[in-house]
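Researcher: I've been going back and forth with a colleague about how XPP2 aminopeptidase might be arranged in three dimensions. Neither of us has a model we trust, so I'd like an independent prediction. The organism is Zapornia atra, in case that matters for your notes. Sequence below.
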Amino acid sequence: PPTASARTDIRDCSTDPPYLPPTAVNTTAQLAALRDTMRAHGVQAYIVPSTDAHMNEYIAERDSRLGWLTGFTGSAGESIPTALGFLLGGTAMVTQDKAALWTDSRYWTQAERQLDCNWELQRTTWIESIGLWILEAVPVGGNISLDPFLFSIDTWNSYSRALHGSGRTLLPIETNLVDEVWGDQRPPPASSEIYSLPTEFTGSSWKEKVAGIRQQMGQHVRRPTAVLLSGLEETAWLFNLRGDDIPYNPVFYSYTLLTNTTISLFLNETRLAAAARQSLQAECPGPFCVELLQYEQASTHLLHYAQGNVTIWLGTEYTTYGLYGIIPQEKLLEDSYSPVMLAKAVKNPKEQELLRAAHVRDAVAVIQYLLWLEKMVPQGQVDEFSGAQHIDALRQAQEHSRGPSFQSISASG
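Model: Here is an independent structure prediction for XPP2 aminopeptidase. You can compare it with whatever you and your colleague have in mind.
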């Protein structure tokens, strides 16, 4: 096989001038602007994750801060095992004179094609190695900063442990420095309609679901006064609402704070379909009246609520450190998953029947695809891409199709 230097599709930063393939992205301007902003905020290092504020597996263009800053696009629609949850696509670390990207081995070749020579690629996937890099790159007394609304509680704690006693400070800044620099070039927020799922596709009404969660609150030994939902699929499931803010996922940006007597739903309410709004507000005022608040107000509202004599139940897997940090420790009831996530996981007979019917429809598409492959492959007519397009078209032709659940992986061997 040719030596690495003969390969022209990956970067070579050892030559002068360095060799960059046409796929590499020039990040000099982004980095210079970010470093200016870091200086203005008195920050020596800034951590940029590839997650969004809801710990989504897939993210919208608007939340692709790592991609914009580094040129590295990470996983385009691929499930990442949760053991690498903090990485998802990668983690970037920027100081005044260095920039590094951590990603796991599936992406090393891709990174070498997309990164320019401003970036060092770190071929390890554990937070300890990021910690060691920080200790080397940031002098004692330095601040390492991040946006607390983009980090899980676990990831925050891991960084905290890695820096503990090192004389360096982990400093949360609520203004996202990448967003500040990205400015009006950043893609706009989603604007498509948020709609009610037709009744024939729901296992129970949203009021029944809310009543069930309130019953669990009442039976819990700690008697929580509220449940906080950060996972987008939790709110979508609870209210039988759907949207398409994120590729391959029928969800929309939202938070929910549910108490025994009130329901606060934080979202861009101008996007709500008229029928959906009617369904949520048919019983106002009252315990089944959904108060619609702006998505951006969630943390302020939570801060205000947390000042009362309350206990807030949440699932730590989907709650960011930013929201978690608002609630005093003694007012928290923590589980890995919220009661809504657990209720959603248990399908009632109607939901089971709907699932089976969906699988039958999908099986038809797959069988059609396999027959087509048997006919076409011997003719040399199919590559992986055209195969993926064909199975997507077959699925789309099935009744009730709302698109694939991930980018089709259509070949093997």
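Researcher: What would you highlight for our discussion?
Model: I'd start with this: The domain at 27-185 is CATH 3.40.350.10 (Creatine Amidinohydrolase; Chain A, domain 1). After that, consider the following. The CA atoms of residues 89 and 284 lie 43 Å apart.
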